[in-house]
Amino acid sequence: MIVHLRVFFVLALIMCVPLHAAFADGGENIASFDARITVNEDATVQVIEQIVYDFGTRERRGIFRTIPYSYQAGDETYTADVTNVVVVNADDVPYSFNESRTGGELTLKIGDPNVTVTGEHTYIISYTVAAPFLYYEDYEEFYWNVTGGSWQTGIEQASVLVDLPTGATVLMAACYQGAAGSNERCDKDERLVNVERAGYHAVASGLKQGEGFTIAVRFPAGTIKKIAKPWSPKPKTPLEKYWPFGVPVLLLGALVWRWYTRGRDPAGRTTIVPQYEAPEDMAPSIAGIVYNEAIEPREIFAEIIRLATQGHLRIHRFEKQKVIFSQTDYLLERLQPDKSVDDPVGALMLEKLFQSEYEGEEVINGTTVKGVLLSKMEHTFASDKEDIVDELYAEVYEQGYFVERPDKVRTRYVVAGGIVAFFSGALLIFKTGELYVVTGIAGIVSGALVALWGRLMPAKTRAGVALKEQLEGFKRYLSVAEKDRLTFHDAPEKSPALFSKHLPYAVAFGVETAWAEQFGDILKEAPEWYSATDGSPFSPSEFAHSVQAFSSDFTAASAPASSGASGSGSVGGGFGGGGGGSW
Hints:
Layout: H1 6-15, E1 29-39, E2 44-54, E3 62-68, E4 70-73, E5 76-79, E6 82-88, E7 97-102, E8 105-111, E9 120-130, E10 134-135, E11 139-145, E12 150-151, E13 155-163, E14 172-178, E15 188-193, E16 198-207, E17 212-220, H2 238-242, H3 246-263, H4 284-292, H5 297-309, E18 313-321, E19 326-334, H6 344-353, E20 359-364, E21 367-373, H7 382-398, H8 406-430, H9 434-453, H10 462-479, H11 496-509, H12 512-517, E22 530-532, H13 540-557, E23 575-576, E24 579-582
Helix pairs in contact: 3-9, 4-5, 4-7, 4-11, 5-11, 6-7, 8-9
């Protein structure tokens, strides 16, 4: 067979002209590594490797070639027998060699220990491998590590020609070169088809020491005999395959138990009593946090409304004329700057709002008004907002409404879940195999579960539960429809002053529209702390929409700026491989 294949190797040498660049290992290098592989219907393959090894000026006795015959596939270890080993030179003269098998590798030590060689020599190694195939339902695959990656020197150029059995077709094929695990495609490849047979040819060049060359050829099921052993691992049960998915299930049970013992609020009253006043001296932002267990943008905006209703500032809404369109902006005018603010939240709000970098002036209704402009806060107020948020969380904790600060409780869970999800994602990216995929997905689900569960874990004290019930009664009063107001006995009489007094709390609870609609027959003009220059007639519902628009614009301005910013195989996969060197 070797004689008949000499034409192939001559053509390969002509097509793949060796570069003969000197490698760093004392002048030694492999000028070319050309393989011819014939796939037989009995599920064996005949491999012929022609290795042109240049010893340079070094005096050596020959080469050794290691060929794996034991492989790890999933959780199973299989043996692919390597037999019928023959080694000859370019003139078909046999080389002396000896075989040794250890550690799942066949080592061929080629050469005469009593004869030294230098310069370039050709070694043609042929051997038969039993059933090195992957079997699937619709196709079979020959996944072969052509050169191996453990040669002591580099390989200037490598090629492989695969012949399939008569009548077979190549469904898919790919080749890879580089270090172990690399999915870099090789220099060139092509599927070969003629009247009787099909095959695959691939070439890789410039392989450095430790780099390899791998191919994968897929052909229809039934092309070769299906061998149950060694390359058809016994199917695993669903429990063996998917046991990592039990981790999120067990984790969910542990989280439920932790919530039951650590995150559950104490029991409160069974009925909610209507309330017509907010708790005394309580800021609307604090009320919103206790009610929602978190700070939302409307809680901070509610503080601006409160400061306005208490006479500390006036909100001006005006239109800026652009080239074609107009743009809505807001100016906050500070009133009575010498007037002190009793509560720390209000004082901090005024300090953060009225900074020189936000200052400006506008002509409003014919008068020049100085203050801070919402347009100047865009994306720069975000850090100031974080200081306000921190102060609010500290307040609700110091006032004894929560066992721990809600933000810190949630942060612990988010960080823990993020770490689990990060390493699970890394497992998916850097590891291959069904077990790693299942484990990675289960880990990501577990991490997400922990992070989301943190939203349930802030626990209120008994004082916090009692306050939330009181706030629930107050919210019901603020959000009731006009036609249902008769259900609230002894409710205070409606007036513009009452509207402004409770509006900040309605904003904090998200019911400002319902609250405004109750005053449709009372409010005929805007409150003195608010002005608009659009000239439209005043109505409470329209005013509520304006408040919502201001809230949305303020939320956007206080937000941080956004930042813009089937070849699944790899080298070293499959069967074959090994390496070698000189001796």
